[in-house]
Design goal:
With 476 residues, the protein is of the alpha+beta class. Among the domains are: 72 residues; 79 residues; 127 residues, OmpA-like domain (60s Ribosomal Protein L30, Chain: A). The chain contains 16 helices and five strands. A five-stranded mixed sheet has the order 1-2-5-3-4. Strand 3, helix 15 and strand 4 form a beta-alpha-beta unit.
């Protein structure tokens, strides 16, 4: 029984001691939390450090059973210093706002991970600026902050480069170890040039990463390509292959592709003619497929509409003849639009424009219309294509027209929207000047990069995405 009472006494004493400590430390602890929330450790490092030392002295004295007056004195000093650190941090948050934002940018770019040495240097300079501000020397603090900002910016840029270019650099180092330059020097040089161009683009604008990302991916492809070529050629060299053997081996995929299209690949005059033939056949198949899909969709809509009309007419007795006349008129209108569509479809070559339908609208995608980089001026070389466009528009004399401008994904979003709008408006003004149109029936709109029709990761895809679409809305 005595042992039980002794245990209870110890536990009660321990609990009471913990409560006493919490009460004793409450004010200093609250001040510590305020300082921590104000980021005083970074923005007021010297005062915050002194506060922490006083707080730790109080804890050590209390835990060793030291003099309570000394503990209270240390806690009072700690609380005062924590509050002073919080106030100083608040002032620093304003005085060093630009530096804090720059540091945040670098941190978001993973500078502590990808540019650790520069990050550590910048952190030291940040601390120096904060200490000078604590001492009241704003001039020196501003100078130290400027130095820290410069290093943070360097760390940020290095981190962005490392993030986007690291894999490419790794591949190029691998290529160097494999002595790829001996077998595929031109392909390797292309990869290196693309990497340099990507790095240059980041130096010019570190925040517009679409273009450097694309260049880095192209560089990776060329580096892998060079490594493959070197491996292939080294293997064939070991097998004593001749140049003729290599060429014949590389002809096999082209022959296989031709066979799939039921075409004989005649390579007696080189690759150009059979390649052009295969490309043309593939494009014809794609166009035919698109046309068939459009025909099927239109037929389904027409059938569904006719079935609804027939059911409705059969259910009525009065006014049947008038409704049938309206139905006949609508069918005639649909037939007229199909005839107009077929009429303009044959006006353009494949390289000039694609003509297709979406619901009841007719689109003319001006694949052959080009603009200088960043410009919205119509070049005289486009006159032949635009003359055909004028003829096509006259086929729909009462239609509403919408000129739609589109860009690829390179460049900023706002710039792309503005450029696409200017180009669409340039075509609108050209048509108003050359075709007798009511200005109220023709409008222009820019969509920027938001409506791609091809892969922006390839040069060919980006070229297809940079386009003008003319949407014709026939009178209903």
């Amino acid at each position: 029984m005595v042992v039980v009472w002794l245990c209870l006494a110890v536990l009660w004493g321990s609990a009471s001691g913990q409560e006493l400590k919490e009460d004793l430390f409450a004010d200093a602890t609250a001040a510590f939390r305020i300082a921590r929330e104000a980021d005083a450790e970074r923005l007021s490092p010297r005062i915050y450090r002194n506060a922490m030392e006083a707080y730790q002295d109080a804890e050590n004295d209390y835990d060793r059973g030291g003099n309570l007056d000394r503990v209270r004195s240390s806690l009072a000093e700690a609380g005062q210093l924590f509050r002073e650190a919080a106030r100083t941090a608040g002032l620093a948050d304003q005085a060093l706002a630009s530096l804090i934002e720059t540091r945040s940018d670098a941190e978001k770019a993973s500078a502590p991970r990808y540019s650790a040495e520069l990050w550590r240097e910048a952190e030291k300079k940040f601390r120096a600026a904060a200490i000078e501000l604590e001492r009241g020397d704003r001039t020196l603090a501003t100078r130290r902050a400027g130095e820290a900002e410069a290093v943070y910016r360097d760390a940020e840029l290095n981190a962005i480069k490392e993030s986007y270019l690291r894999d490419t650099r790794t591949l190029l180092r691998q290529a160097d170890k494999l002595r790829v330059e001996r077998y595929a020097p031109n392909t390797l040089a292309k990869a290196e040039a693309l990497l340099a161009e990507a790095e240059k683009a980041l130096n010019e604008n570190r925040y517009d990463t679409d273009r450097p990302r694309g260049l880095a991916q192209e560089a990776q492809y060329e580096a892998r390509h060079a490594i493959f070529l070197a491996s292939y050629l080294r293997e064939k060299e070991d097998e004593d292959w001749t140049v003729e053997d290599v060429i014949l081996d590389w002809e096999k995929p082209l022959e296989r592709l031709a066979a799939t299209l039921d075409v004989r690949a005649e390579l007696d005059q080189g690759y150009t003619a059979p390649t052009d033939r295969l490309v043309a056949d593939i494009e014809d198949l794609r166009s035919a497929q698109q046309g068939l899909e459009q025909d099927v969709d239109e037929a389904r809509r027409r059938i569904a509409g006719l079935e609804d009309e027939i059911r409705d007419l059969d259910a009525r007795l009065g006014g049947a003849s008038e409704e049938r006349r309206e139905l006949v008129q609508r069918l005639a209108e649909q037939a007229r639009v199909r005839e107009q569509f077929e009429q303009i479809e044959i006006m353009f070559t494949r390289g000039e424009a694609q003509v297709f339908r979406q619901a009841s609208d007719v689109y003319i995608r001006l694949a052959g219309l080009s603009f200088a980089v960043g410009r919205a001026t119509i070049d005289p070389d486009n006159s032949t294509l635009l003359t055909k466009l004028e003829r096509a528009i006259r086929v729909f004399p009462e239609a509403e027209l919408v000129i739609e401008g589109h860009t690829d994904s390179y460049g900023g979003d706002a710039e792309n929207f503005e450029l696409s709008q200017r180009r669409a408006e340039a075509v609108r003004q050209y048509l108003l000047a050359n075709v007798r149109l009511d200005p109220a029936r023709i409008s222009s709109v820019g969509f920027g990069e938001t409506r791609p029709v091809a892969n922006n990761e390839t040069a060919e895809g980006r070229a297809r995405n940079r386009r003008i679409d003319v949407r014709i809305q026939p009178r209903r």
